[in-house]
Design brief:
Order of helices and strands: EEHHHHHHHHHHHEEEHEEHHHHHHHHH
Shape: globular
Organism: Bradyrhizobium hipponense
Largest sheet: 3 strands, antiparallel
Helix content: 40-55%
Protein name: Core-binding (CB) domain-containing protein
GO molecular function: DNA binding
Keywords: DNA recombination
Number of helices: 21
Low-confidence stretches: 18-22, 479-500
InterPro entries: DNA_brk_join_enz, Integrase-like_cat_sf
Length: about 600
Amino acid sequence: MAGKRERIDRRLSAASPIVLDQLVDTVAVFRDGWGEVAKRYDLGKLGLPTDIAMLLADAFRNHHAASSSDTLRHCWMALRVFARFAVEDGHVLSAGDLTTAMVGRYVGWLDQQIAGQTNKPWSKGSRANVLMQLRQMIDWTKRRHPSRLPARIDFPWRSWPNRHADPRTRLGGDDLKAILRACYEEIDEAWERFETGRRILATSGPVDGVDPELCDLIRALARVNDGVLPSRTLAIRSQVNISAVARHGGLRHLGGYLHLTGETVVAFFIALAIQTAGNPDALRLITRDCQVAHPLDEHRVIIEWAKPRAGRMIKRAQRRSFDRRRRYAAPNLIDRLLAMTAPLVSRGSRQDRNRLFLVKSEKKDTVTLIPEATLSHALKPFVSRSNVRIAIWNKAAPERARPLLPDFAAVLLRGSVATEYYKASGGDIVVTQDVLNHARVDTTELYIKGPQTRRVQREAIARLQNLMLGWIIGRETDTGDHPARERIALGANALAPFSHDCLNPIAGTASGSTAGRVCRHFGGCLRCPGLVIPIDAEHMARILQAKSELERARERLDPRRFELLYASSLRILVDDILPDFPQSLRAEAETRMMTLPTPPALE
């Protein structure tokens, strides 16, 4: 007999109305892609009036619902600045006091703020960013809930004009080389410590060259927290010999025997930032599967990472290729990072598990992507440690003295590397734009603007004026100090601008290329060893069309000029490339050639 089921109530009931203008509380909670709480901000603790705190919390919660954690943190810091202004101003007591006059007072208050580290006023960019965060909250409230703003409040269009007029300080080439050398020294030291830890954990007996007490200590720490450095409280609770820990450098130092630590990660990050010329914020988010095999060179590896603001609808991937045969090439550094962070991967959250720069929090027993603030704060100790080593070196070998590291921030690296590329290319901003992967040249110009760039531009203008005068009056110009690739050469080297005089892809012959590095036009030259031409009718049609155009140019151009500039290309097409195509494709190729677009005239 079937059991009796309860009757389903299918009657419609009126749902409780949703009151859009109802403010909930002063807490803004943000969740990650898996529904877990990622960030929680309580604006009620900032000292703002309750109605203003609730208004800003609702705008913060909704406007930044899909923003990154860094964007959330920047907005939170800006709201804290506004709360400090409201307390000091004394006239912001309710939402009715959010007026245009209040914005004017806020702008004046921001102009008076002094940075604690530099004892100088805030930069125009910092002031503009802080004001922009408040403006976004107010604009969201205007669009969605205008009734919450009793008074009119407007923001000036440009409170601080020409905020990019003063270029940032740039690090010179010698500074970058000194920083890289210090990074490599610290990386080698960290890697040697990690390798020692792996040898200790791989056996239960003594290890050659290692203190037996240190071996026992590393094994004890690894057992406490499954291979991850435990907190001091957990270590004491697990009866780890804390006195021995102190004798061997402390928990922070011993953590390097087990995995990557917050102290050693900064050297890896700086080295990769300089080599890739990547944006520090985007490079911090690089994933563990960032290495891709090069399609043409077995010794090169492509490093890929994402930049959230690169492109609008279609995001452009950031990528650079490196020769793995170099000891400190980026792929080799990434391999070390993968090994040193392997014990931490299983402890990371689902959104951070695939990140490369994983570290264990010293305050909490959690593994996260290294925060931006941690990297910023770790730079100064890194510079101090490096300068101590350099001072010892200079004292021991004064005849080979090394320069001390300058005080720098991670934000300076990308612009400094861009400036060096600009100088090395002889003032070619397109080359620098290609390295930085910018969509617009004016964006690249902001990175390289400075006295070094102006000097390169003045030298280029003077050199071109000298050449122009030489052509006009017929005198020889002094090109002794000019780079070889910028000289006007005829004869055998006249084909270089057309990329037909390069049998060696690392010779640096082509415009914009550097000797010792793979040509930036690699794969696009007729005689290039990297050239790949599919054997099909379509490509044969294009080759026949190019051959016909060159033959027509031979009839109308001066014979000496044609022989100097174009004859080599025609000979390569006729003697080297066309014989590789089977005759069976020629009829179809000639038919397809009639439908191809008309090629541009050579001259």
